[in-house]
Amino acid sequence: MKAGELLARLTGGTLLLSLYLFLYAPIAYVIYVSFQKDLNWPFPPSWTLAHYAALGADQTYREGLWNSILLGVGSAVICTAVATMGSIAVLKYRSRWRALMVVIFLCPLFVADLLVGISNLLFNRQILNLPGNMGSAMIGNAVHCTSFAFLIMLAQLSRYDWRLDDAAMVFGARPLRCFFEVTLPLIWPAMLGAFLVSFILAFNNLEISFYNLGAIPTLPTIAWGSLRFGLGGELFALAALVNGVVLGAFVVMYLLMRYRIVSFGHRE
């Protein structure tokens, strides 16, 4: 191996390692501290599960967990349904407005969550006369998360052979039956991927949920409110658990793709 090629590989490896450290070292540190007795200076290590026990015994966090799960599931269902219908409409049917439809679906990607939350709050209060509640928070998060779900569905459906639907309808299948018996069995992995990503985004969202939930607590809002009293051990335990669940979901998705159980739009 030439000296120039060796130097290039070492440089690339160093940069890649530095990037991984920059991204994941804070997460690893939070997980490490969540098991330590001393939060201020957790060296040398002194292991404990007291922070997790305190987290599990706190009724406020349990209520926030349930509300966050409900919010995430509701938003993910809305996002998956809208993204599926939108991607089918864009890719299956020819229209001169197709590019405009794609832009409309992707616009929320370029709007800050804070602005989405405030806009939904003002619209619901002044136009619809709706107070902040779980339903308005689900819709607000769905506005933001649908863009991500739409991109996932486009990646899968861009490879879909629409002649399968045409063949089914030629043999007498109605559009609804064609979808459930032909289209859905082939695109459900992408729908599952869109659902999981939308759920994670809505579950962890603070800005949109904060302005649209009213007095209903979720884990992000509880954690944000707790910061006024300092960093407690429960917050480190909560952050470690949330990161663990998210990491576990992506590991499951990777294994499903790795062993070709599902594709999520991925092809080797």
Question: Could you walk me through the main structural features you see in this protein, from its secondary elements to its overall organization?
Answer:
This protein has 268 residues and is mainly α. The protein has a domain at 63-229: MetI-like fold (Orthogonal Bundle), CATH 1.10.3720.10. It is 74% helix and 0% strand. It contains eleven helices and no strands. The protein is globular, with a radius of gyration of 23 Å. The mean pLDDT is 89.
Tag the structure with descriptive keywords.
mainly alpha; 268 residues; MetI-like fold; 0% strand
Tell me about the largest β-sheet. Answer: none
Q: Helix segment count?
A: 11
- Which structural class do you get from the secondary structure elements? mainly alpha
From the alpha carbons, calculate the radius of gyration and give it in angstroms: 23 Å
Q: What percentage of the residues does DSSP assign to strands (E)? A: under 5%
CATH architecture of the domain at 63-229: Orthogonal Bundle
Number of strands: 0
- The poorly predicted ranges are none
Based on Cα principal axes, name the global outline: globular
Could you give me the name of the CATH homologous superfamily of the domain at 63-229? MetI-like
| End-to-end CA span | 30 Å
Within the CATH hierarchy, at the fold level, what is the topology of the domain at 63-229?
A: MetI-like fold
- In helices, the fraction of residues equals over 70%
CATH class of the domain at 63-229: Mainly Alpha
H and E string:
HHHHHHHHHHH
* Average of per-residue pLDDT values: 89
Summarize the structure.
By secondary structure, this protein is mainly α.
